[in-house]
Structures are given as C-alpha cells and as structure tokens.
C-alpha cells in the first residue's frame, strides 16, 4: 500500500473528537499522521491491537520527527487522553509514544498497556531498569542545567544590565538575551525564568509539570524504583519535589564509587536528614559500607542511624559492614523490636550482644554472615535464636574469630527452632567446635557447607524436609541419612571417613519421595553411594553427576561396576528415571561403562546429557572415540536423546 492508498489531501475532520486505530497494517502509522493533521479538535486517541491481531502488530514505518513539518493542532490545543493497548516496546514504537508525550500540551492521561508477553518476571525487571535509566538521564540533564545553563543566563543578564547603564542610546538585544524575556506567539504570554528553563530544555518542563500533578502515593512508588541517592536528587526539580523523597519507606546507602570527601558529605547528610525523615514507617533500611577509610564512619554513627530506623518501626534491617577498622556494637533496642521482620547482618565489624530480655516477635528471616558474638552474655547466638518464635528462614556463616577467641563458649551450635522452614549453615575449616545440633520439625530446606570433620552431627526431627544440599565430611553418614528419608531433592558432595560397606548407610532405608538426586564424584565411595540410592529410590526422575568447581582435581573413577554390583535393575531405572546428566566427566573406561549401563536399562529415559571437562588438542581424538562409543551403545528407551558438549 503506497501513499495513493491514503485519502486525498484537503479532507478535514472538524467534528472528530475520538479516534481509535489498530496497528495491524503496515501503513497504520501513515494513516495516523494524516488523521492527526486533519483532526484539529481531537480529544481522545487510542492505539489498540485487537485480540484477533496479536501476531500482526507492525512497527511504525515512518519517523514522526521527519514526517511532520509542524506539530498537529490537536496536539497543541485539544488532545487530553492517549492510550496504547498491546504495545510491544520496540524502539520505533517507543519513539512514537514519546513524540506524542513531548508535544501534547493539554494531555491529562497517557496509558501504556504492554502485551502479555512482556509480563514475565525478567522482562518486567528489564522495563524497571530502563525506567531507572531514563530517570538518571533526566536528572543528569537537570544537574547540567542547574550547574551550567542557569549560571550562564544569570551572568548574561548581569552583563546586559551593566551595558544598559553605560550605553545611553537604545540598546540592541542579541538573540541569546531574548531567552529570558521570550514571548510565544500562540500563547501571547511572557515567560518567567522557570519557563525559560523549559524552552532551553526542549519543552521538558511542561512534561515535568504533568508528572508533578500525580498524587504523592504514585510518585513515591516511582521513586522506590530508583537508588536512594538518585531519589534524593529529585529535590532539585521543583518545590513540589523538594521534600517528597523524605517520605520514602525504603532507604539504602552505600559507599560504592565514592571518594573520601563524598563519604564525609554522606555522613553529614545522614546526621542531618535521617532524624527528620517523615515516613511514619520504614520498610527497608540498608547500609553497606565496605573498605571505608579510617575515621570517616564511627561505630556511634552506625548505632545512631540504626536507632532512628528502629524508632520508625523498620521491617527490614540490612547492615553490611566490612573492613571499617572498628567493631560496631548494635543498640539493645534492636533485640526487642516488634516490627522487625527481616534482619541481615554481614561482616566482622558487627558485634552481636544479645541481652536477656531479647524478644523479636515478628522476625521471620535472619541472616548472620561472619559477625562477632559477644562472650560477655554467654552464648549470644543461642540467645538470639531462642528469642524468635516465628523465625522461618535462617542463614548462618561462622568465622574463626566469631566469639572473640572465647571458643569454649561456642563449642556446640544448637539450632532448635520449631517454626524454622529454611536453614543454611556454612562452617569453615578453621572454626573450633564439637557438635552441630539441628532440631527443626518444620524444616523444608536444609543446606550445609562444612569443611571440617572433627565435630559430630545430631540431626533430630526433620520429618518435613523436601530439599537438602550437603557439602561436608560425615563421620557417621548413617545418622544423617536416617533423618532425611522424606526429601524430594537431594544434592550430596560428601566425603566419608570409612571404607567398604561402613561408608554407606544401613540397609532398609527407602527414599519414597526422592525425585531429584545430584552427586559429586569427588570421594572414593561416591559410586557405592550411587548404587544404594538407585536401589532405594523407586520414584527417582532426575539423576545428575556434577563435579563441583572446587573439586576439579578430585574426580575419582567409579570403584564399582554397576553390572556386577546390582543383582537386578533398580525400579527407578525401569519405571521413572527420565533425565540423566553428567557434568565434568573425564571419559575413563569405568565412567563410560557406568553411562552405558544407565542408557541400557533406563526404560523411560528422555534425555541423557554428557558434558566433558575441557579438553586439549591431545585428548580431542580420545573424546571423539568416546562420543562414538556412546552413540553406538544400546538404549532401552527409544525416545531418549543423547546430548554431548
């Protein structure tokens, strides 16, 4: 369809007030251009993609800036409502929408509804980030206007005044001098300095005025998508925005990319403004100060800011303090805060000293990474865990000096929390302890990373476990396995201090709920453990052998031959296993035989993925030979796809 397909020039729609177009045709935007030019009284414009044409949306083939010699009269004087339904967000589409927003002077409402395809979580996050980038660009432009353009205008005014005083005859104005005393023909009104700024910024001030007409609640939601530092900078926009940021319920401050002088200003800013913050309740308060030069932030500063946040009924408190040279003791009011739901403490500069009166009735999430526990009040960690009656999520990472050298106080880590549902423990090698006790009857997720095997484990009531991720050395794997028989997903990277059958768990244990099993082949007994799990997991659907990145040099060939070890084909291979994956395989003959056994006996297998370790040119021929051997091996499942990398 070419230009002749549009209607003739000279046709005017004087009575047209409402226009709705479907963007399913390649010439729809050309038609829209003509209708805008020929509809001087248009009040409502809607671009709506019909349900039947979801797959027919076409990008505008015209560039509006080039197509229109002048802004249509309806945009200048009448258009009050603009709506686009089913927008897919391409650059050309966004340029069209921006053109209308930039030129529609009487616009009251602009509604943009994206296609459902953009409603995924990832794309929604991308849209939010894009909005943040646009705001950042706007604020940078405003800062440049404030720091460069306005001083030039003021300086020019002063020069003009001085010249007028010296020159008695009529003074001839240059063009630049008219910017501050401009008269637009269509409005016939003299612009003040604020209007002058808008003219110098390509009419951006009227757009800002329209945004400012939104209610505070909506503007605050917009500001919450921005970093706090950027949200604060909106105070320079106008008096309408000057103190709006002080109602923000989310405050985040960090020292990323800041010099010492900027950190000094940040400290002064917090001391001045945080006590005056107007939000009745602070939803989130985060401080991240890492590698701070000595003397800038003092422990009493952090303590004061935390006290202020607590006084505003804070719901989430997140402190990340590392390498600040001095430990920060948290206020005692923290441990009796009724509103606190999430508490995250990170860094060896945080001292946890829990009083006897501690009680956190609302706390559901607790994260403690490498913090220091005071030894004055006996076991502060145990006391902290005991004062959280509704705790659901606990992350605990210890460090060698977390009890200031008083290791006798912390010989036993006891996690006894009836309400706990998620537990993640990380215990490095240099931590001195005797026993780990876990008694959590409501636990659904359990992760343990422990490098030391000198202490014992006591896993008691964990009957509701669904997901377990373990990387450690077990002196008694039988006790552990007995407590996790209800698990649905199991990831194991274990080293067992025993030989032969003693390295395995007792006979008779069955994992009726286990559907996903992941094993790391870094221990000499891993293949024996695999045999036992195959025998005792009748409903296993996914099996993965994955060599952890930290154990690249520890891969061990299977000690057993599945053909000889198993008297019969396990039930899971005959009836349920659908996915098999081996990551980091070396390609030894024993490994190949194990893969061939599974391919030969897994009747329901749909996908088998073999990912080799990185090879050298010298081993490439060997790798190709292994590919060929597996491709020619027999498969019980006729629908199985074999994938190599």
Strand order of the largest sheet: 7-8-9-11-13-15-17-19-21-22-23-24-25-26-27
First-last Cα distance = 49 Å
User: Which assembly state applies to the chains in this document?
Assistant: single chain
Tally of extended strands?
A: 27
Summarize the main sheet.
15 strands, parallel
Uncertain segments are 173-208
Total DSSP helices = 18
What's the mean pLDDT score? 79
Estimated share of beta-strand residues? 15-25%
- What is the CA-based Rg, rounded? 34 Å
So what's the overall shape? extended
Report on the structure:
30% of the residues lie in helices and 21% in strands. The chain contains 18 helices and 27 strands. The strands form five sheets. A 15-stranded parallel beta sheet has the order 7-8-9-11-13-15-17-19-21-22-23-24-25-26-27, with helices on one face. The protein starts with 17 loop residues before the first strand and ends with a strand. The model is unreliable at 173-208 (pLDDT under 50). It comes from Arabidopsis suecica.
